[in-house]
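As a warm-up, study this chain.
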Amino acid sequence: MTLPVVYPPARSPRAYDRGIHRQDAHRGDPGRDAAGAGERALAFQRKTLELVTERVEPIEQGWVAREPSLPLVWSANHIGIVRAVTFAEALGLAEEYLGDLPYRQVMIEHEPTGRRLQRSFAEEKWEVDREVVMELVREPDREVDLGVVIEAGEGPVMELMRRWIGEDESIELTPGGLDQVVEFARRVARARNARLLGVRGEHGSLAAITMLYSDGAVAQVEDVYTVPEERGRGYARALVTRAAEIAREQDHELVFIVADEDDWPKQLYRKVGFEPVGLSWAFHRGG
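Now compare it with the structure written out below.
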């Protein structure tokens, strides 16, 4: 999964008629409502954002999220766009609403606009990231040993979150900034009654984690991470499989996960039973 400093665990809710991209809309199931699933997943993420930030303000083009206590967390301070805008309009919104911050973060969930503007943002040296929302639609492709998965404590899980974020060389964070990002992850986990899952490594300490957020009807698998020295042992697959199993046991109507569209974990999630239902963009500059 992408790091929480880069993306909000909360993406905003947007209906299909506002442009959510219907990726592989009915793969293998003619009755599957991929667009509806994508919309519900985005709605869940938007609600999460509202639970952990001081303000999510509607604007004509989408929304503005701000959390003054965590000014260095991109996820908590950004512009969301859900309708067609020009590149100049997007830049103008970022300046208008984020002008007091050392960075600019623009989230676009209108698929035609995201595709149309990604080149312009890249040419202006903005970072461009794409996230795919994936819905759980079938059983895993094979059985795995779920006995290694444990219920983990908040402290150890957040320490691994700190390590994960600190490992990303593309993000330059001061110690204070790192503290803010970890605090944001903690707030999200608490707000969404997260089940904290982990796997212990060969030396007995926590080596891999994931979280399962829930509102009783919708569940999100989030923050899948394994420390580098313990990778290649199937821990991520076991964690995601167990999280999906728990969500099924609790009769959630929708279970989803969010992945980097341009990275390999989405292939693992497909093996566990997830399929793409939506695509969004994040553009970042500075800070």
